[in-house]
Write a structure and sequence with these properties.
The termini are far apart. The strands form 4 sheets. A 3-stranded antiparallel sheet has the order 1-2-3. The protein folds into 3 domains: 100 residues, no CATH class; 95 residues, Orthogonal Bundle (DNA polymerase, domain 1), CATH 1.10.150; 186 residues, Intergrase catalytic core (hpI Integrase, Chain A, Orthogonal Bundle), CATH 1.10.443.10. A hairpin with a 6-residue loop joins strand 6 and strand 7. The protein has 15 helices and 9 strands. The radius of gyration is 27 Å and the shape is elongated. Helices cover 47% and strands 14% of the residues. By secondary structure, it is of the alpha+beta class.
Length: 410
C-alpha cells in the first residue's frame, strides 16, 4: 500500500532545515523537497507535522500546507492508476508540481543571486567564519559578472557560462588556478543546495566538464632536522616569537589544523601525558594522537595550559621571523598559474612557511618514517589516500632513498 510521510533533512540541526516528502509505492521510493523548512525543535516526528506551540505561531498554516502536499501526492498517484499509467518518480514529480501549482502552493520562482544571498545569511548561523568569507567573495564576483556581462540565473549556469566565467576570474581578476577552482566549487555547492530544495532543475553543473580546477601547489614542509633548529632557538627574550614557535611545533607533531592545535585544553590530555584526545572543528571528528616528546616538553613548560594564540594572519607573520632565525633559508622555486600564465619565482624557504606547513610537515615526516598511510590518515582525518598524498612533500631523491631500504631492492 502506498504511504506518504514527511522527514527532516537534518533532524539534529540547530537552525531551520528542509522538510522532505517520502512516498513509498509499489516497492519504489519517491523523495520530494516540499521547499518548506522548520527548526527541528518545533517538529513532531510522530505526527510528522509542526508542534502546536506558541513558540511557532505559524504552525496551523505550515501544517495545512503539508496536508495539501500529502493530498496532492495521493491524488496524483490514484489518478495515474485510474488512467492505466504506471507511476514512476519522474511522472510523480511532474504531476505533483502541476497539482501544487493548481493549488497555488508552488513557491514563487527565485533568482539564483537572490537564493545565494539568502543562503549565505542562513549559513552564517551554522557554518565557520572562513566558509562564510569564501561564500561572500564568490557572491561578489557573481554579482560583478552578472552586471557586466549577462544576468546569471539557474537556467543559464551551463558549460558556456563555465568557460566564460573561469576566463573572467583568471584574466580580468588574475586569480590563480586554485582560487578559480575554489569559486567554481562554491558555485556547485550553491547549485546543489538549490537543487535539494527543489528550486533548481538545471543539472548541467554536474557534468564532468564543469569541473573544479586544481593545480598542485608548491608548498613546503619542514624536516625533523629543521624542526630541531626551531626547537633549539632561545626566544625567551622575545615572548611573542617564543609563543608562536611553541604552538607551531605542537602543530608539527600532532598534525592538527591551526584552529585545533591553538584550542588544546588540559582536559584534552590524558593523566600520564601520553595521549591527546580532541574533536576537530572542521570535521567534528574525534581523534586520538600519541604525544611526541617535543609536545610533552612544551606542555610541561605551560603546565598543560597553552598560551592564547594570535590570529592566523599575525601568527604567519611572526612564524616567518622565527623560521628566518632558525636559518631556514634555502632557495625554493615555486610556480603558479595566474591569468592563464605560469609564473615562476624563487624565494628563501622561510618566506613560504605558514601555520598549515605544520600539518604538511607532520604527514610527510611520518610517511618518511614508514608509518602506514592509514595510521596517519586516522589522525589527519583524510578520507582517501589520494587526498592524503597531496599533503606529502618529498622529492624524487627522498623517495628513492626511502625505497633503498625496501626488501625488493636488497
Amino acid at each position: 500500500m502506498a504511504q506518504a510521510k514527511f522527514t527532516l533533512k537534518e533532524p539534529s540541526s540547530k537552525t531551520n532545515t528542509l522538510v522532505y516528502l517520502i512516498y513509498n509505492y509499489q516497492y519504489s521510493r519517491f523523495k520530494y523537497s516540499t521547499s518548506e523548512s522548520i527548526n527541528p525543535k518545533f517538529w513532531n516526528p510522530i505526527s510528522q507535522r509542526a508542534k502546536e506551540t506558541k513558540q511557532f505561531p505559524e504552525y496551523p498554516e505550515f501544517n495545512t500546507r503539508l496536508d495539501k502536499i500529502e493530498n496532492a501526492i495521493k491524488n496524483v498517484f490514484r489518478r495515474l492508476l485510474n488512467d492505466g499509467i504506471q507511476p514512476n518518480n519522474t511522472l510523480l514529480k511532474k504531476e505533483i508540481e502541476n497539482e501544487l501549482s493548481d493549488h497555488r502552493l508552488k513557491p514563487k520562482k527565485r533568482s539564483f543571486l537572490s537564493f545565494v544571498e539568502s543562503y549565505i545569511k542562513e549559513s552564517a548561523l551554522n557554518k565557520r567564519e572562513g566558509t562564510i568569507k569564501v561564500y561572500n567573495t564568490t557572491f561578489k564576483y557573481l554579482k560583478e559578472y552578472s552586471s557586466k556581462y549577462k544576468t546569471i540565473d539557474f537556467e543559464n549556469i551551463t558549460l558556456e557560462f563555465y568557460n566564460h566565467y573561469t576566463a573572467f576570474l583568471a584574466q580580468e581578476h588574475l586569480l590563480s588556478a586554485n582560487t578559480v577552482g575554489k569559486h567554481i566549487k562554491t558555485i556547485k555547492s550553491f547549485m546543489n543546495e538549490a537543487t535539494e530544495r527543489g528550486i533548481n532543475e538545471n543539472l548541467e553543473f554536474r557534468k564532468k566538464k564543469f569541473k573544479t580546477i586544481r593545480e598542485e601547489a608548491d608548498t613546503v614542509y619542514l624536516s625533523i632536522k629543521e624542526l630541531e633548529q626551531f626547537e633549539k632557538l632561545k626566544l625567551s627574550a622575545t615572548p611573542r616569537l617564543d609563543k608562536v614557535r611553541d604552538l607551531f611545533l605542537i602543530g608539527c607533531y600532532t598534525g592538527l589544523r591551526f584552529s585545533d592545535f591553538t584550542q588544546i585544553q588540559p582536559e584534552n590530555i590524558n593523566n600520564d601525558n601520553t595521549m591527546l584526545f580532541i574533536r576537530t572543528q572542521k570535521t567534528s571528528e574525534r581523534v586520538a594522537i600519541p604525544l611526541h616528546k617535543t609536545v610533552r616538553t612544551i606542555l610541561k613548560k605551560y603546565n598543560n595550559k597553552l598560551p592564547k594564540a594570535y590570529t592566523n594572519q599575525v601568527t604567519n607573520t611572526y612564524l616567518k621571523e622565527v623560521a628566518s632565525l632558525a636559518n631556514i633559508k634555502e632557495l625554493v622555486e615555486t610556480t603558479i598559474t595566474r591569468g592563464g600564465k605560469v609564473e615562476k619565482s624563487v624565494s628563501p624557504k622561510f618566506k613560504l612557511i605558514s601555520t598549515h606547513t605544520a600539518r604538511r610537515s607532520f604527514a610527510t615526516n611520518l610517511y618518511i618514517a614508514d608509518i602506514p598511510a592509514i595510521s596517519i590518515m586516522k589522525i589527519t582525518g583524510h578520507k582517501t589516500e589520494r587526498s592524503f598524498m597531496q599533503y606529502i612533500r618529498i622529492t624524487q631523491e627522498q623517495n628513492a632513498d626511502k625505497l633503498l631500504t625496501h626488501a625488493f631492492f636488497q
